[in-house]
Specification:
This protein is of the alpha/beta class. The strands form five sheets. An eight-stranded mixed beta sheet has the order 17-16-14-12-11-10-25-26, with no helix packed on it. It is found in: Cell membrane.
């Protein structure tokens, strides 16, 4: 959208509806967080303020007072009652007891996929969905329950992922307490498929057909752009690789995959431009744009930011049809008032807050900042390109900081680089969605035209995420957001005064030199002469063993998902991998296999005798065929040598005779390849996930297990024999484990045993990437200190 860059004439913004919007939002948010009484109290204060304004009798206060009075009354009575009814819903009391319930529900929104990292024999991906629904009838513990409240269904993908808003279904499961700050009465944990499923409205079926058509058309593209394009156009990230999603988050571009007002502006603007080209009148143009926007809202679903933008767009189109010049700020304030009254849960929705604040920043700040840059000699186009992302970043940074606990340092740059392709890829994607079902050939042409734009966005996000210190840690929650907001207000206000600008500049320099981690200014990783690195890949394993020649290393295991192991190898400067060893075929050891090949030459993939689980073996062998690399099996007693590194295969000591379908997790763990590596820092024992039986076999065979460094088996689980640990007699023990994992790793008993032996214990959930390097009296340890967060 073209920003005004002329100094004159400038129309003052109409703020009359802003107090009402702030009061309605604040009252609803207070009610959700503190209780219905808080909404009543804030609403009452708004009513009192409105009465005071109206009592003054001045015309300029009448509009403000009237809007404030209406919103205050709505917040104090209807909204407070809805919050009270949700809090006292009988299903909430049943959920507190954890009883089993049978519900007849009406689906409110499209199922939202829940991504889960791979672990053990569970493949990474989407295994469950979250579905907001409204209860029509309910029984708990066999007794009827009077409830028509909202519930959240946590259900398996099978049978549930294809449900559409408006469909009814019957299901059973265990009730769980709902999260606070919402109008949800309870959460239902569902295990079985839905029963007695009703039909969806015809418009929902049509929208689903269009969405499925876009996914089919995108199948002609490579995996990453094929998964990204539906996310950019429809907010559908179900096919998006987890690595790309993480990179968009780290680089501050995640908002592009959440359909918001920007999408509606692009689509509405394209329709209005087309109408202008054919010389259509304002009423026809408004009707055409309104019809397209309504169809787009049905297509993408009722997301808070989309509904907010839809209300604003409807107001603007109505003004166009009536021949009146609309104002964005009153439209935004009116949208906030209407939406938080219609659906109070929007008041606590981060996406809604980000959308409203970003729009306010673009309306209030971006034009002024663009004007200021133009006056200082910056060309208008560049001034707008800088002002828009900077304004959006400033007003949304506090919310993002409180929500994510991080502050992106590259967000403005990445958004400036991404901005030129957002509109074209959106228009092309929407056209492909609409045209595809009727003319597949044209749809594929449009998808191919959108492919370069999608690849550019992936490139920008990937390089932004790899920038040193792309995201800095920040206190999370409400206090973190308030602190960030206060800091930004101080900086922006102080910058308006000439005498304070120098102090602000000096303060920012001091912060950069003292608060920003030293790694951003002078990254000290990797340490010189490193011999081994335990990569922090979350809840999984990935070990890198250096050779004498820089840039060459053997990799053992690849973690649970693509991305982290690639980032680790890039930090280490590894360009050639003569051998990639997979200790066993559990998901948390093979999930990142494909990303090891990114920009690197891999000589061969080595595995042990295990072929279970079957899906994992098919994935590994298929990847080897696609990459054209040999797949070799390691055997006990085998020795592999390179300059500066040698590997001896110590196990497994047996090969199971059971078919892959009959092997359980313990059998697969015990089939792990056990390696003894001689490195420049000493001897290293790599144990995969061997458990008690395999450890006992190694002890019984009298294998020389002594090593200076031990990669602790199975993420430090309790299945480690003290005798096994004593036989290794390590000086240093490395535990690869994910922060906040739900498996209890590492076990306190295992850590205590190592502690009593005087072993230095490191953990990737605390220390991040951990390097072992030679020292005079034995191996030394260096920690990168950036542990990955808990699995999502």
């Amino acid at each position: 959208m073209k920003l005004e860059t002329e100094e004159k004439p400038r129309r003052d913004h109409d703020f009359r509806l802003v107090p009402a919007a702030v009061a309605g939002w604040a009252a609803t948010l207070a009610g959700l967080q503190l209780g219905w009484w808080a909404a009543t109290a804030v609403g009452a204060v708004a009513v009192i303020g409105a009465v005071v304004l109206l009592a003054r009798g001045r015309s300029r206060y009448v509009g403000v007072g009237g809007a404030l009075l209406l919103v205050g009354l709505i917040a104090a009575v209807p909204t407070a009652l809805r919050i009270h009814d949700a809090a006292s819903d009988p299903l909430g009391a049943a959920a507190a007891r954890g009883v089993t319930a049978t519900l007849r529900v009406e689906i409110s929104e499209r199922p939202r996929p829940i991504h889960q990292a791979g672990y053990a024999d569970q493949q990474a991906g989407t295994r469950s969905v979250a579905i907001p629904a409204r209860v029509t009838t309910a029984t708990a513990d066999g007794q009827p329950v009077e409830s028509t409240g909202r519930v959240l269904l946590l259900a398996p993908v099978a049978g549930w992922s294809g449900l559409l808003p408006g469909q009814e279904a019957t299901t059973s499961g265990r009730l769980l307490p709902a999260r606070g700050g919402e109008l949800t009465a309870a959460v239902l944990s569902v295990r079985a498929a839905p029963a007695d499923v009703g039909s969806a409205p015809w418009w929902q079926r049509a929208a689903a057909a269009l969405r499925n058509s876009l996914h089919s058309l995108c199948a002609v593209l490579p995996e990453e752009p094929a998964g990204l394009l539906p996310g950019l156009v429809l907010g559908d990230t179900s096919a998006l690789p987890q690595r790309v999603e993480s990179e968009f988050t780290a680089s501050g571009l995640t908002h592009l995959m959440a359909v918001s007002g920007g999408n509606l502006v692009i689509i509405g603007g394209a329709v209005l431009l087309l109408c202008r080209l054919v010389r259509a009148g304002p009423r026809f143009s408004a009707a055409a744009a309104g019809t397209c926007l309504a169809g787009f809202l049905v297509l993408v679903g009722p997301e808070p930011s989309v509904v907010r933008a839809g209300v604003m767009g409807g107001i603007g189109l109505l003004a166009l049809a009536l021949g009146r010049r609309g104002s964005a700020l009153p439209a935004l304030a009116f949208a906030v008032c209407v939406l938080v009254a219609w659906d109070p849960t929007m008041a606590a929705n981060f996406g809604f807050a980000l959308s409203v604040l970003a729009t306010a920043g673009l309306v209030l700040l971006a034009p002024r900042w663009a004007d200021s840059l133009v006056r200082r000699g910056v060309p208008p186009g560049y001034a707008e390109g800088l002002a828009v992302p900077l304004a959006a970043f400033v007003v949304t940074a506090p919310v993002i900081a409180g929500m994510a606990g991080t502050v992106s340092l590259v967000s403005v740059v990445t958004n400036v680089l991404a901005a030129p392709v957002v509109a074209p890829v959106t228009v092309l994607g929407v056209l492909a969605t609409v045209v595809g079902p009727w003319w597949p050939g044209a749809g594929q042409v449009l998808v191919h035209l959108a492919d370069p734009e999608a690849r550019w966005l992936i490139t920008v996000a990937r390089h932004g995420a790899r920038a040193p210190g792309a995201a800095l840690s920040w206190p999370g929650g409400w206090w973190g957001g308030l602190c960030a907001a206060a800091l930004l207000v101080v900086v922006v206000v102080a910058a308006r005064f000439r005498r304070l600008r120098l102090l602000v500049a000096i303060g920012l320099v001091v912060v950069l030199l003292t608060v920003v981690p030293a790694k951003v200014l002078a990254p000290g990783w990797p340490p010189d002469g490193w011999a081994m690195v335990e990569c922090d890949v979350g809840q999984g394993d990935a070990v890198v063993l250096a050779m004498a020649e820089p840039g060459r290393a053997v990799v053992v295991d690849t973690g649970p998902e693509p991305g982290p192991v690639d980032e680790c190898l890039r930090r280490l400067g590894v360009e050639r991998v003569p051998l990639l060893v997979l200790s066993h075929l559990h998901a948390d050891h093979i999930g990142g296999l494909a990303s090891v090949f990114d920009g690197r030459a891999v000589g061969a993939i080595a595995v042990g005798p295990g072929r279970a689980p079957a899906w994992a073996w098919q994935s590994v062998s298929g990847e080897a065929r696609r990459r054209g690399v040999p797949l070799m099996q390691l055997s006990e007693g085998q020795r592999l040598e390179w300059p500066g590194l040698s590997l001896d295969v110590l196990g497994p000591r047996y090969a199971t005779t059971r078919s892959p379908a009959l092997q359980d997790g313990t059998m697969i763990n015990n089939s792990s390849v056990v390696l003894r590596a001689d490195t420049s820092a000493g001897r290293v024992l790599l144990t995969g996930d061997v458990e008690l039986a395999a450890q006992a076999d190694l002890l019984a065979e009298g294998v020389d297990l002594r090593a200076d460094v031990l990669k602790v088996p199975h993420h430090g689980s309790r299945y480690s024999l003290p005798q096994f640990l004593a036989a290794v007699r390590p000086r240093t023990a490395l535990i690869s484990v994910g922060a906040g994992n739900g498996y209890g790793h590492p076990s306190k008993s295992t850590v205590d045993v190592l502690g009593t032996m005087g072993v230095l214990v490191t953990r990737t959930d605390v220390d991040g990437d951990t390097a072992v390097l030679p020292a005079g009296s034995g191996p030394a340890v260096a920690r990168r200190g950036e542990p990955r967060g808990p699995p999502r």
